User: What shape does this take?
Amino acid sequence: MKIADIDLGPRPVMLAPMEDVTDRSFRLICKEQGASMVYTEFVSADALIRDIPATVRKLSIDEGERPTAIQIYGREVEPMVEAAKIVEQAGPDIIDINFGCPVKKVAGKGAGAGMLRDIPKMLSITRAVVDAVKLPVTVKTRLGWDHNSKIIVDLAEQLQDCGIAALTVHGRTRSQMYTGEADWEMIARVKENPRLTIPLIGNGDITTPGLAVQAFDRYGVDGVMVGRASIGAPWIFNDISQALRGEMPVPLPDSVKFDLIRRQVSESVARIDEYRGILHIRRHLAASPLFKGIPHFRDTRIRMLRASTFDELMEILAEVETLTSQSTQS
Assistant: This one.
């Protein structure tokens, strides 16, 4: 699969853009584990134009994580064009436009998935951004605003006509948020449109290697995107990559997984500071499947998620690794 001149190989699997999750450290780890391409946290066009430091920091890319897409969102043409030009100077491989975020503070203000209620403006923004930059521009969106307005088949063609180089479709409406099941049959209908010639990336509920294989074999997408299933488990890209190559699964040892978690903690603290770095990493710790199945783990889990210093957290992780090893041997 190619996005413009960027060759991602056969059956690529991407790391989805996720706020407060896909920082530079996590992206690099996921790339090392087999992600074909990674996306930044989404970047507010308005905040970028105002030169807000926390937003500008999101543009930082490690050479080892490439190809990387920087994702922007906004609700007006001019700020989105200006933000796209700023992003281009940061040197990503792709600029992605977020027309899919369902959270109220974004969609409720008309940005993200909120654009699904104003298709003319969505198309105007897309066309203007494509015309303003030399980098490939892609779009990520949803099936529609709600169950009664699943417009994605026609919308995909309209976005293609604006000049985008690829489209990612999350198989839910905005109204669904992240509930229910992703509708991959609807994603397949987008792919079946003979007039759609750009690559189609499917997103939603890819939680196992088998589901990733099914997305290609049954629904015919050109690529798949993994989001929430990667939080606290960047090794999912190793597992999926093996399955997509038709190899026998060889899971990473738990010791390697613990090393990856410790690396995330260390790099989060180094990137921000001890207090906020630990707060940032708690989402990964809370979601990680690495700690499931450990007997009588509740109290230890509470201590782990309440740890406030680097040394304390590292000590608890060492304790948990011992518990995991003992649980595996018993």
